[in-house]
Amino acid sequence: MKKSYNNIGRMGCALMLTVICSSLKAQTKTISGTVTAENKPLSGVTVSQENSSETAVTNEKGNYILQVSGNNPVLVFRHPDYTEQRKTAGSASVLNIHLRSNFKNIEEVVVNAGYYKVKDKERTGSIAKVSAKDLENQPVTNVLSAVQGRMAGVSITQNGGTPGGGYQVRIRGQNSLRTLSNSGTDGNQPLYIVDGVPIGNDMTTQFSGSAIPLGNINPLNSIPPQDIESIEILKDADATAIYGSRGANGVVLITTKKGKSGKLNLTFNTQYSISHALSNLEMMNTEQYIAMRKQAFANSGVTVYPATAYDVNGTWNENRYTDWRKTLIGNRAAAGNTQLSLGGGNDTTTFLVSLGHQEQTTVYTQDYQYKTNNISSNLSHRSKDKHFRLSVSNLFSTQHNNVIVEDITRAAYLLSPNAPALYKEDGSLNWENNTFTNPAAAYNATYSNDNLQFITNFNTEYDLLKNFRVRVNGGINYQAFEEWSIRPNTINNPSYVTGQSSFYSSSNTFNQKKFSYIIEPQLNWNYQKGIHKFDVLAGMTYQSDETTQGSLRGSGFESNAFLQNIAAAQVRVVGDHITTDYRYGALFGRINYQLNKKYILNITGRRDGSSRFGPNNRFASFGAVGAAWLFSEENKLKDLSWLSLGKLRGSFGTSGSDNIGDFQFLNSYTVSANSIYNGVTGLIPSRLYNPNFSWEKTTKLELALDLGFFNNRLNATAAYYRNRSANQLVGYQLSAVTGFSSVNANLDAVVQNTGWELELNGKPFNRGDFRWETGINVSIPRNKLISFPGLEGSSYANTYIIGQPVNMVRVYQLEGINPATGQYRFTDFNGDGRISSPDDRQVIENIGIRYFGGWNNQFKYKNFNLSFLFQLVRQKSRNYNAVMTSPGTMNNLPVEALNVWSPQNPNGLYMPYQSTGNAQHALFQGSDAAYSDASFIRLKNLQIGFQIPLGSQTIVKDARIYFQGQNLLTLTNYFGIDPETGAGSFLPPLRTYSLGLQLGF
Predict the structure, then answer these.
(1) Alpha helices in 770-863 (DSSP H)
(2) 507 near 491, Cβ under 8 Å?
(3) Do 854 and 872 touch, CB atoms closer than 8 A?
(4) 814-818 and 823-826: which strand pairing?
(5) How far apart are CA 963 and CA 831, in angstroms?
(6) Model pTM?
(7) How many angstroms separate the CA atoms of 573 and 568, rounded?
């Protein structure tokens, strides 16, 4: 009986196993298929089953094989460039699918807010974003050139056309009174962050001031535009308050490209471009110039031309003509850019490695070059259960810049058109018997700098508990910079003693090394129940910077061969060798609450401590509140087919600025080589101690309306902002008996920036093979000083006026020409019978921007694509009259200077020519005649591309050729070299034509 029971048991177990196996076999099956896009196979598509860890990736033929379970599995197809799709497989074993182009709805767009990411639909702050598709392949060395005109509220001005230079970036106006001219520090620079690592502000060099505009080098020069996935700019209080004391001027977030899952993908991109300098001036030819000079001598009563009047006394050929702009700065600059990247991975681990090399020559005749090399990498990993994530990014970049030691752009506009040739027949410099100051002599001197930068970032996350995540972000930034300014005696005429011996040669060098690291542990908690949703973030920051710098100057060399060995100089000056430390610590947090997916409240705060401030005010708190109402989700509006999004948002809060340099609150002393007593070098006090030195604070207010229509094919945003910056960090005037002209202090002055920002983006046509996207943005900024106690009695009384913009200038008022004297006539406001400053400088000129914007379009038809961007700026600026030499002297002038006053031309602008300079012209340069409209419309970028159709059996999987143009067309009435850079003496921006090839393997 027992044996029978055992047999029965064994038979039962076998039957149960058979049933179970049959059931499992029925629930598990294999599904295969092909994924296509734009009528060709698509590789790198991640295919997974919903609510399952099983995944597959399509190969180069678009094929996949996936094991699924269940009776009715749902497959998810994901690719970063195409819209995610879900498909129910049912009983099918073969499932083919076609992915549509990635026209993301606003609900799907995610923007980077720095410490967190948020869906564009749900954001409460103001964040502007430009993605890789707008940046790639543009013939620029700095990404800031690529985003000009693309973002509302962000004004970007290139300082000049010299490669490796700087930019002026203003995010919603000028908040601080501190500028390079009044403090040596630009207090309005934004915070730059690359993959979570702050990289510092513009570097001001010591010896490049005559070679690179303002001597500034932008930190983003080291980031290749081709390696950038997106650039986001945080503008309002809700977005910037979490950055506390560093966010007052806005935050620029750079996210570099990451690897994508799928088969190994090798991409090769190369382009060649040529450039030439822009010019908006037509100069006099020889006939016009000689007539002007002879008339000037006649007006001055000179009948016998002086011996130094070489241009008209017969020394130089009066029939000779040289277009000096074409000769000196009219050459074609060539550039080559090559990028090679390798990426791939699977569903858990991806990587990307990129190599880049770029060379760019200048428009000068000599062999000057700007070279960059970069290596970047990224490794991202996540566990199969998706609880652990790790990302490591590295960027190593070198830049070598070699340019003329002194920009000769101004010489190109001043040289007499009949001046002699630059070189003799034997190739040596032509000094024309000591009658010619040869500008080509500057080619014998050189300025060069080498900049090495290494940035690494790591970010790790772990889902500790359900809805509870711990995250650590950290990184280091190392920079080594060295510059040389070498001026051999050969830059001087060899007929004079300064040009005959290397004793008159000089060499200067400056070096700086900076090492910084940052660590930011964070905790994040997400909770959702019913109609309530919470997202809470808490974290801390510790940042340490150490900067060392020093300079050497040498002169009096035995030979020019020793110019880079300053120890060989007879006279050596050792500049201050300084080490500065900067320590920064903070606690920050964010609470985001959503009610019923319609009402959103966002609270951010930060408590900062900085070593840059006095001991009495070393810590400060900043915070903001943002709110949004998605009224399109209300029941009465939710079902409207034409309204996709309706959101009303606003924010209010404070952020600060510690962009003032290190230890400005301390007593400091300067080593004086001229103060030596008994063989001991003395120290001179240079700055006073101020323990109350504190933060600048900016209070920001914004109200905005976001709208989306027709399934988000048309989106519009209108925003109003008001920023008030107080506690200004400037020099406070002191009595002369103290021995100091000023002390660094906080003045109770308030600068206000207000404005409107309008954005309109649409997809007017997306049918079949044709696609069109367009976007317009317009910004209308206003700036004024609303309070400054004690202004009238301060040293700033002639610089600022309450109620006027901070960049206004006081000028004389030109009334015209006095017909009785032929002299300029200016308004004598104080009636004392003479024109003098400051009493008669009563006319106020606002040289700021009235409004600016851009209009971009992208067209695609089959394998062709076309895109262009127009930039618009409405502004007033200094014109060429501000720098023009006195008409009639031995300098060339624009043809506008032919409009000279005479009894026959009573409306002429310029007074009769004089052969020598006169004080009246100096007044003219400081009058309202030197300021005029500098508005312009510029075709900033044009791109035409063609995707070469390839067979599926070729090694090359993707091939594209493209043409790019930069600064192709400028429409302006501006009287000057270029309306963007103004009436400066540096090389203007360049017009560039580029041809490129991109291959994918």
Answers:
(1) none
(2) no
(3) yes
(4) antiparallel
(5) 62
(6) 0.86
(7) 12
